[in-house]
Amino acid sequence: MQVILVGLPGAGKGTQAERITASFGIPHISTGDMFRRAVASGTELGNTLKSYLDSGRLVPDEITIEVVRNRFKEEDAQRGFLLDGFPRTLQQANALDVMLDELQRPIDAVLYIHVNEDVLLSRLTGRRICKNCGATYHTVFQPPKQEGICDRCGGELYQRADDTVEAVKTRLEQYQHTAPLIDYYRNRGLLHQIEGEQPIDKVFEDVSKVLRAIEG
């Protein structure tokens, strides 16, 4: 099963991706996670990526495409995938089509989690991450028991540079360039719009209906 997960930052893609992976057994391929691992590595590529991520700008297509191409070569991706964060432009979508044509593995569905922008701004600026274990919290929706401290491991919580108000606004503006993708996949009959402002369980219920239909 080859599935693409799309939506603006803060739409809840990460939460739904975890559930999809657990329930349907396909690996979650997130360009965001791959980018952050590269940044942590301190390599030349990582340093280049950091400048884009910290400012909220989109990573250039040629860099993103190469990262994804390398990920598809890994063993777990041979049985299917949930692609999150790619493609974000029509150029990337065309590059993905070429890659998947070569692999003879067409896209089965594109899940579009739709959330209004004012809701996204509130969601993203309140997000906090544990420096130690990576657990995610929210100052409003999922606060830790003790402010600034991870419930799971006691690590320090921090706000990512790309979650500040200024960076989030830039990210949302940049992601408007992804709008043509929605029409691109809708015109191909692959797009399934999921309302992301519903309770998390209801969002996953709607997602599961689509994926179960694909499985047959």
What does it look like?
By secondary structure, the chain is α/β, with parallel strands linked by helices. The protein contains nine helices and eight strands. The strands form two sheets. It has a five-stranded parallel sheet, with helices on both faces. A hairpin with a 5-residue loop joins strand 5 (127-130) and strand 6 (136-138). The N and C termini lie close together (11 Å).
Any idea what the radius of gyration is?
Answer: 17 Å
**Mean pLDDT value:** 87
Supply the number of helical segments. Answer: 9
Please name the CATH topology.
Rossmann fold
Q: What is the total number of structural domains?
A: 1
Q: What is the chain-wise order of helices and strands?
A: EHEHHHEHEHEEEHHEH
CATH class: Alpha Beta
Which secondary-structure class do the elements indicate?
alpha/beta
CATH architecture label: 3-Layer(aba) Sandwich
Helical content (DSSP H or I, runs of 4+):
40-55%
Form type: globular
CATH level-4 homologous superfamily = P-loop containing nucleotide triphosphate hydrolases
What composes the largest sheet?
5 strands, parallel
**C-alpha end-to-end distance:** 11 Å
Walk across the major sheet and give the strand order.
2-3-1-4-8
The portion of residues forming beta strands comes to: 5-15%
DSSP strand tally: 8
Low-pLDDT parts are none
Function: Catalyzes the reversible transfer of the terminal phosphate group between ATP and AMP. Plays an important role in cellular energy homeostasis and in adenine nucleotide metabolism.
Pathway: Purine metabolism; AMP biosynthesis via salvage pathway; AMP from ADP: step 1/1
GO molecular function, one term: ATP binding
InterPro entries: Adenyl_kin_sub, Adenylat/UMP-CMP_kin, Adenylat_kinase_CS, Adenylate_kinase_lid-dom, P-loop_NTPase
